[in-house]
Amino acid sequence: MDSSSSVGLDSNKDVTEAIQKVAAAYDCKIVEGVLSHQLKQFVIDGNKVVLSVPSPETRVEDAEFEENEVYAVDIVTSTGDGKPRLLDEKQTTIYKRAVDKSYHLKMKASRFIFSEISQKFPIMPFSARALEEKRARLGLVECVNHDLLQPYPVLHEKPGDYVAHIKFTVLLMPNGSDRITSHSLQELQPTKTTDDPEIKAWLALGTKTKKKGGGKKKKGKKGDKPEESAEAEPMDATTNGASQE
């Protein structure tokens, strides 16, 4: 995803195809059902969506990227078949209110919990542990059954399969992609390499990362080391492809 369009990743379809191609080069599968969304104020699942895996069950409208847009990039890859399964609904503890749905709840416990959710968590996802415990378990079921809440279930791959998950927020700026959130990544040595020039070009892109703090730069004292650039170093395709965004 690059606002300069220097490598032809101009649309959500282009990014989906690129994700698939890179994963295949490293003998991995992209996990189905994981979406990357455009972000707006108070909206974490905007209209522009990037599919990780195209499928007949999950379709999105074609969309072109534009400067000054913001996206939450969410990618999960697996050494298995990429089709994790729900084993136990009771493991689900994260939910988000579906603001476009309405229903007259029958149970008193459900109405109480939904009112609490509407007051405390009207937009963003929340943990069931943050609710009044005694009524939560009973009331959440009716809310979910009538689509008032969107559950974030815990899914499982087969035993022995390895799963890697990366998620970050990126700004599409006029001078390139600017990654503003993420975490430290493990440096791993893959068993596969690729000589595909297109994949090498993607992996060499890197992203800029925002520095902490702000304001005017302080003058360095004598003997101080020069400040390191915030721009990510280009990555060689023979190193860990999964650890670079």
Strand tally: 12
- Helix count? 4
Biggest β-sheet, characterized?
A: 7 strands, mixed
What is the CATH C-level name of the largest domain?
A: Alpha Beta
Structural class: alpha+beta
State the end-to-end distance: 9 Å
Mean pLDDT score, rounded?
83
Low-confidence stretches: 225-245
Number of self-contained structural domains: 2
Order of helices and strands: HEEEEEEHEHEEEEHE
- Rg over CA atoms, rounded to whole Å, is 21 Å
Q: Which fold name corresponds to the CATH topology of the largest domain? A: Creatine Amidinohydrolase
Query: Any idea what the CATH architecture of the largest domain is?
Result: Alpha-Beta Complex
Indicate the overall shape.
Answer: globular
In CATH, the homologous superfamily of the largest domain goes by the name Creatinase/methionine aminopeptidase superfamily
Protein described:
There is one protein chain. Strands 1, 2, 3, 4, 10, 11 and 12 form a 7-stranded mixed beta sheet that branches. A 3-stranded antiparallel beta sheet has the order 7-6-8, covered by helices on one side. The protein is an alpha+beta fold and 245 residues long. The chain has 2 domains: 12-84 and 157-211 and 218-243, Creatinase/methionine aminopeptidase superfamily (Creatine Amidinohydrolase); 89-152, Arc Repressor Mutant, subunit A (Orthogonal Bundle). The protein is globular, with a radius of gyration of 21 Å. It has helices at 12-25, 108-120, 133-145, 197-203, and strands at 29-30, 35-39, 49-51, 70-78, 85-86, 94-97, 126-127, 149-152, 155-156, 163-173, 176-181, 208-209. Strand 11 (176-181), helix 4 and strand 12 (208-209) form a beta-alpha-beta unit. The longest helix has 14 residues, at 12-25. The N and C termini lie close together (9 Å). Helices cover 19% and strands 21% of the residues.
